[in-house]
Specification:
The chain is mainly beta. About 5% of the residues lie in helices and about 30% in strands.
């Protein structure tokens, strides 16, 4: 690059006319930023500023700015933002020459000041601004004002009290108070006024505690309480509260001095609180069912069958279904149980389990066809002449709540395998809710006890199932007694 600011292209030993006339031969050095390594007297044209600059050995100087001369008017000193206006002259923008000569400042507002403290407003007369009040002074003035210091209020309801806010008394209420007799004053030694004679016992408009039906209150009952007719549905005596048909109520003394609270619901004593504070809920949801017979359980790889629970110790709300149907198949249609001889099947059997007691295999009812035919989930009766048990053994929840569920399987001695896992399963709506079991120690009888406390909803179905992990050998659960294989469900709250 030449110091002159011209860029020359390389040419041959002799410069031709074409090369001399070419624009690129003598192209001026230009751009939008200065070269990185300039030399003194080097020229450069700024395309973005449309200006020529020359390098003076230390900086680039605009050729239109006086040639970078000396003295007090250097552009780099007086026009630092390079807008061709002396910086101090810009500060006078917006003021006329006369304003500058007369020292008249440009109009401005209080908001334009950096400080607006009230104490700085000096030289201002009393009529020029308001009297300053502190918060405490203003509060004291407001609290010292009295209603009678103000003009009479308008005749409207703006200040009236309501049930939602405090206020002044409406004039209508004041009129009512003014109309009350002087005898209504019960303060001090003034007693309340007696009812007029017509309101008293035997009067023409006797006041009755029986309510809106107007039945008169009678005296002479225990503890001075009224004996009211059935329509009032209130007190029958000092010891009993009953409804209209007397089949639901509360008794606090069924027999003399027994100190027991009883509650009847629809004619059944559903609640009893003893004198020791022990609560008995006779109608609280609860059931106790058990297996009346032994049941062969195959290895669980083929099934985890529901237990046959066909006996009940108790069922307060009839929530446990212990239905058991027995018979002999008389048809071998694939995936069907047919028994036209008994013709005992119903639509309620859908979901029940079936035990082929001849082959000790299990299946589930998936559809009801007619009284002599149901569809199963597998071919449980391939020969069509096997004996069977169809059983439901399920608890259906009536009301939402927290329930205690206990299921126990008693395994018969000599019919389990040493170190094989045997367990009981509590199911909710067909899915496992809880499982418990243990490995057999020898062949002695053993129990698989499973317990759950859980939240249940109305119409949930709870069942007890079993698992046998013997790897192929069957095992037998014991029945015949309510402490062997049993199932308990109780609503806690």
């Amino acid at each position: 690059m030449a110091k002159s600011g011209l860029k020359h292209i390389d040419v041959g030993p002799e410069l031709t006319k074409t090369e001399w006339e070419s624009q690129e031969t003598h192209e001026l050095i230009h751009g939008t930023s200065f070269p990185s390594s300039p030399v003194e007297r080097q020229l450069f044209y700024r395309d973005d500023e449309h200006k020529w600059y020359i390098y003076n050995g230390t900086s680039w100087v605009w050729l239109g700015g006086g040639g970078g001369g000396s003295g007090d008017m250097l552009k780099s000193v007086y026009d630092t933002n390079d807008n061709s206006i002396v910086d101090n002259a810009e500060k006078l923008e917006g003021s006329t020459k006369a304003q500058v000569q007369d020292h008249t400042p440009k109009a401005h507002t209080l908001a334009s000041h950096s400080s607006k403290a009230h104490s700085e407003l000096t030289g201002v007369g009393a009529d020029d601004h308001h009297v300053k009040y502190t918060d405490a002074e203003a509060k004291a003035q407001a609290q010292g004002a009295k209603l009678d210091d103000h003009a009479a209020p308008d005749d409207n309801t703006d200040l009236d009290a309501t049930t939602l806010k405090h206020g002044l008394m409406p004039k209508a209420d004041k009129s009512k108070l003014d109309g009350i007799a002087a005898g209504a004053d019960v303060t001090g030694s003034n007693p309340p006024q007696a009812h007029k004679a017509s309101h008293q016992d035997g009067g023409s408009d006797e006041i009755s505690i029986a309510g809106l039906d107007g039945s008169p209150a009678q005296k002479g009952t225990a503890s001075g309480l009224a004996s009211l007719d059935a329509q009032s549905r209130v007190v029958q005596s000092a010891k009993t509260l009953k409804d209209a048909d007397s089949d639901t109520g509360i008794q606090v003394e069924e027999s003399a001095d027994e100190d027991i609270i009883r509650m009847d619901v629809a004619g059944v004593e559903a609640f009893l609180l003893s004198d020791a504070g022990i609560l008995t809920l006779v109608k609280q949801s609860a059931c106790y069912a058990w297996a009346n017979a032994a049941q062969v359980i195959p290895e669980s790889g083929t099934s985890q069958p529901r237990i046959v629970l066909d006996q009940e110790v108790s069922d307060h709300q009839n929530e446990f279904d212990s239905t058991l149907k027995t018979g002999t198949a008389d048809g071998n249609v694939l995936n069907h149980l047919q028994d036209d001889t008994s013709s005992q099947f119903t639509a309620d059997d859908v979901g029940a389990w079936v035990l082929n007691t001849t082959d000790n295999t299990y299946g589930k009812v998936t559809a009801f066809n007619d009284a002599g035919d149901v569809t199963l989930d597998g071919d449980t009766f391939p020969d069509g002449n096997e004996n069977y048990k169809l059983y439901r053994a399920k608890y259906t929840v009536t009301e939402d709540g927290t329930y205690l569920i206990i299921g126990n399987i008693r395994w018969k001695s000599g019919l389990v395998i040493d170190q094989v896992y045997y367990g009981s399963i509590i199911r909710k709506n067909g899915s496992q809710l809880s499982q418990a079991g243990t490995a057999a120690s020898g062949t002695a009888a053993m129990n698989s006890l499973c317990i759950a406390v859980t939240q249940l909803s109305a119409n949930d179905i709870i069942t007890l199932a079993v698992t046998n992990a013997s790897g192929g050998a069957s095992a037998t659960l014991d029945g015949g007694n309510n402490w062997r294989t049993f199932f308990v469900v109780a609503k806690l709250y």
